[in-house]
Amino acid sequence: MTSRRLIAVHLLNDWSGSPLVFRQALEALSQTGYVVTLFTATPSGKGFLTDIDGVTTEALRYTWHPVKVITLINYLLVQARLFCRLLFFLQSTDVVYINTLLPFGAALAGWVRGCRVVYHVHEVSIKPWLLKVWLRGVANQTAQQVLYVSAYTARQTALARPESKLIYNALPDAFRQRASQISTPNTVFPFTALMLCSNKAYKGVNEFVAAARQLPHMRFLLVLNTTATDVEAFIKATTPPANCIVFPAQTDTIPFYQQAHVVLNLSHANAWVETFGLTILEGMACGCPVMVPPVGGVRELIDDGVEGFVVNALHPQELVDALQQVSADMTLYMRMAQAARQRAGFFSGHSFRQQINAAFSADNTLTTTASG
């Protein structure tokens, strides 16, 4: 492929799943002839999109604020600035690659300049409702192609005009290599439940702490994608029991998976539907049975009772019962651990890179790939 400019845009660079997947995609594309420039905001100083080989970064000014109105104002301002910057930066031969539906300013600028616009859609739980309608409308108008991380995401987003392609997320090769070295089954006790998530109530953090109170003979590790200061505030507000340890965001999560027997995702099905669930896939690659919500893309990763259990965090006794069952039956635990690791093998980095490169190939004719 001859060199061609690819202008990548991700709103908030942190340690969450969507920038991790975006990094993998940019690494693959930068090695196949694209000259990549990334526009992103990194208020915490670092994130998964920091220091990518072969990628030039242009900083955006954007910060999240606990007051929703202020966050919305900041969000609209960064979209206006992004639109104006890209309007003069873009060339008609550029490809504009947008991660999540949120950076609509980039999509509008790419559309005005006649660029090819590609979205990588991870999320469906966007509020307020009017914003979601606006973002879907912009994507429908501006995009030539949309990449979805799960069949659920494709169904829920339901963009009519762009061509669509389903590309499941994958784990970085370095992570998979380290995960393969973790012995299964984990024979170090006490039985340990691990959850890595954002510091949001709808992620099930309160249910996780409540389960720890009911199961004092187990250990519960909670890794929140936030600062140490916010973790202190969370501990003060929730007063977790002694068997529940809370940690801030981690750059290296392997040691946590190494201690875990089971990995949880307790997102509330009525408030935040997971579109994929990267931490669940990480746990499976490390040989951990998992527990996932009954809806969403994360549900596509497992068969109930095989690699783990489907549990509804809004029914707390389901979670407690499932934890008691898998911790008390080592034969069941070992069988699930083996099945989880085997299932994770289907989500390889090699396959992900092949699909990403095919989607962005210069000879790509954008024939439709139905995604459910």
Automatic annotation (TrEMBL):
Entry protein name: Glycosyltransferase family 4 protein
* Keyword annotations of the record: Glycosyltransferase, Transferase
Q: Where does the Glycosyltransferase subfamily 4-like N-terminal domain lie?
A: 21-169
Q: Is Glycosyltransferase a UniProt keyword of this protein?
A: yes
Q: Which Gene3D superfamilies match?
A: Glycogen Phosphorylase B (3.40.50.2000)
Ligase as UniProt keyword: no
Q: Which residues form the Glycosyl transferase family domain?
A: 200-343
Query: What domain of life is recorded for the organism?
Result: Bacteria
